[in-house]
Amino acid sequence: MRFWRNDPESWDKGGDAGPVTEADLAVNAHLELMLRAARPDYGWLSEESEADLSRLDAEHCFIIDPIDGTRAFIAGQEGFSHSLAVSTGDRITAAVVYLPARDQIYTAYADGPALMDGQPIAVSTRSQMQDATVLTYRAVSEAQNWKAGQPPPFRREFRPSLAWRLCLVAEGRFDAALSLRSAWEWDIAAGSLIAQRAGAAVTDRRGTDMRFNSPRAAVDGLAIAGPILHRLLVDSLV
Questions:
Q1: For the chain, which terminus, N or C, has the lower number of CB atoms within 10 Å?
Q2: Average of pLDDT values for 190-196?
Q3: Who's near 98: CB < 8 A, 6+ residues apart?
Q4: pLDDT digits 0-9 by tens, 79-88
Q5: 105 pLDDT exceeds 90?
Q6: Could you tell me what percentage of the chain is helix, strand and coil, using 3-state DSSP and rounding each to the nearest 5?
Q7: CATH of domain 10-120
Q8: Which residues are known binding-site members for Mg(2+)?
């Protein structure tokens, strides 16, 4: 927070990887020092760390995005988060998404409840696409993405942090989150478990269960919503 709204140094990572700031690197260094000291046998996968494929041989792996929503952070907006998850094998088993500017925290663990600020949360029960609120980007609405040749009659909204989008679905403030683009694991690992434990169906864009700590460290898009709405969305996509 000492960097936020204080003109942090920032630069572009190149290769369409987007911007990074000195705050991203400082948070990453702090988390790595703290977490790896506590669990030295865990693997490490972070957006801001050099690739270390030894993580693929670890039973457990930290999957971290030090600041998700870096553009919002640079702009002085509140919609950025820290996304921290633990995978066991290829499944996420513990998750935290924290929005420091809002002092709001979402948590979940395998077989436990999804919580926001310590209180249980649950996904929307909406069962039709008419007027559903979907957190996604503009290009999703292009006609070629939909079997009917036009997008369903949902209302599209956007939030800068992908991890936060998944949590907003988990708490029922929005009905779904959808992306047809490949999603990096560090962006979605924590939010995917929080949404799942809140009752959402959580898959890639094809309706296939997500797998984590993969060699590519990415998932083929995402579709996250209550079970009925999720099936409607996935079945409507090309």
A1: N
A2: 99
A3: 81, 82, 84, 104, 105, 106
A4: 999 999 999 9
A5: yes
A6: 30, 30, 45
A7: 3.30.540.10
A8: 47, 65, 67-68, 187
CB proximity list for 157: less than 8 A, separation 6 or greater: 133, 134, 135, 136, 174
Residues at the annotated binding site?
47, 65, 67-68, 187
**Architecture of the structural domain at 133-236:** 3-Layer(aba) Sandwich (3.40)
pTM: 0.97
Is the Cβ–Cβ distance between 211 and 111 less than 8 Å?
no
Estimate the crossing angle of helix 162-170 against helix 185-197, to 10 degrees. 10
Q: What's the pLDDT score for residue 16? A: 79
- Rg of the chain over Cα atoms, rounded to whole angstroms, equals 17
What whole-number distance in Å separates Cα of residue 50 and Cα of residue 152? 41
> Taking the domains of the chain in order of start, what are their residue ranges?
10-120, 133-236
